Amino acid sequence: MISDQKGEWSDAGAFDRVVAPLITGHWLLMTDRWKRRPHGSNWGDFGPDDQFGRMNLVTPEKVKQGVAEVREGLRFCLSLPLDYPGGNVLNPRRHPPLLRPTLRGNRANFNYALAADDPERTDVVNDDLTIMHLQYSTQWDSFAHVGSLFDADGDGKPEAVFYNGFRAGEHIVGPSDAKDAGPKGETSTSAAHALGVENMAVRCMQGRGVMIDLNAHFGNARALVGYDDLMRVIEQDKVAVEAGDMVCLHTGFAEVVLGMNKKPAAAVLENSCAALDGRDWKLLDWITDSGLAVLIADNYAVEAFPSRPGEGCCAALPLHEHCLFKLGVHLGELWHLTPLARWLRAHGRYRFLLTAPPLRLPGAVGSPATPVATV
């Protein structure tokens, strides 16, 4: 292993790709996308064109470790109903999904008796479509979801870039005119030609899940959880997080949302349950050093949002920046973890097999998910 300024290169080949060119004064790894990488990032460690990030650490051996956790054959659905939370209190730009019938000629293709076309037919057919905000409910964030203004060219001018230097306007494209945005329209107007959720689908998002039960320690009260708090919970519950694990944080937030029956109260939710402190640099370092592959929570954003004030010009979502932009760690949000977390605690366990592919929807930057835990 070869050390860099913030940790270690993932393999010896990284030395040849990155360090050796630095010694000779040339960035041979320099793709068309970047000449310098953000401090604390792992850009290039998995290859100059990598789009899988730390899912590269979920090897066949890690999947077998997850399978070894299946002892009872019990399965848990970790998704909220996708029409929850209800309304748009959590995010005014996201709305519940709409279901509508498709058209059969000029008629609604729902409860449609084929006898209307041929009296000799007995079939009654339903066919529908959905208009869906992909990150309304239980969801995955792709690396194209959040990038940063960063001087990847080394010319003193920041560019809008995403994980591993993929560029806004070149690889992740979309309209600038509001008339080409929103739910109305008959053509697609945006696409992540790199880093989209289809890359996650191809990886299958299956491996060993690790539950950290924050709710068991903090209850439903609002709590800003930093590194010291998290380490205390991990130590008390004797949880081990290893490289390639898929880490889930149970806060109880999704259970509170379910109890509101699609009528969420902003004042209640803003003061409910634990969230990570994205401004805690020790916590961000732990995410880096632990080697976790993905980070999942049953709350709105994994981290507290809005975050604590930062110093100078900085990210509004510091944990998103650290995970999605720098490390290639996917985030899962608004998962329904309470039934699983309670079962695991009652049985003295914290590991399980997690299977959670997103939609294989090319170009999407986020996706609903129906994750399944097997114990």
Key terms:
single chain; 9-stranded mixed beta sheet; two-stranded antiparallel sheet; 22% helix; 375 residues; Glucose Oxidase, domain 1; 10 helices; alpha+beta
Q: In percent, how much strand structure appears in the residues?
A: 15-25%
Q: Classify the helix fraction into a percent range.
A: 10-25%
The biggest sheet, with number of strands, parallel, antiparallel or mixed sense and barrel status, is:
9 strands, mixed
Please identify, by name, the CATH architecture of the domain at 60-86 and 134-144 and 195-374: 3-Layer(bba) Sandwich
Widest beta sheet: strand line-up: 1-21-19-13-15-17-18-8-20
CATH-defined topology of the domain at 60-86 and 134-144 and 195-374:
Glucose Oxidase, domain 1
Mean pLDDT: 92
Kindly provide the radius of gyration, computed on alpha-carbon positions and rounded to a whole number of angstroms. Answer: 22 Å
- Shape estimate: globular
Broad CATH class of the domain at 60-86 and 134-144 and 195-374: Alpha Beta
Please, how many helices? Answer: 10
